[in-house]
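[agent] plan:
  1. take the single chain provided in the ticket
  2. run structure prediction with default settings
  3. attach structure tokens to the ticket
  4. add a short note for the reviewer (M.T.)
[agent] executing step 1
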Amino acid sequence: MTVESGQAFAHAGDIPWQDLGGGVRRRILCWDDALMMVEVAFEAGAVGALHSHPHRQASLVRSGRFRLVIDGATRDLGPGDVYFVRPDLPHEALALEAGVLLDVFTPARQDFL
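[agent] step 2 finished; step 3 output follows
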């Protein structure tokens, strides 16, 4: 099953994961043009490489421990911790242990579709 734009309900277990390589995979949980929620799973030691994008991003650490670098500032975060990335700021994530991030983007990441 894939999630259609603006779909009111979806069961996460029915949404396939996309393998991004390097111990990282993601699945788009819901989206429309203005907003997108994405679950990203990391194996221990996996890296979300340094990048930037024009979207605002708010993220929740659902499980595991991560070292986040946002615009040169570094923090270690664990379950329940959150972070916010303003548009165009360079950021990266290192999984200190296996874990899952829940990312919300506005507007939606068309490059993920």
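[agent] step 4 note for reviewer: Residues 36 and 108 are 5 Å apart (CA to CA).
[agent] ticket updated
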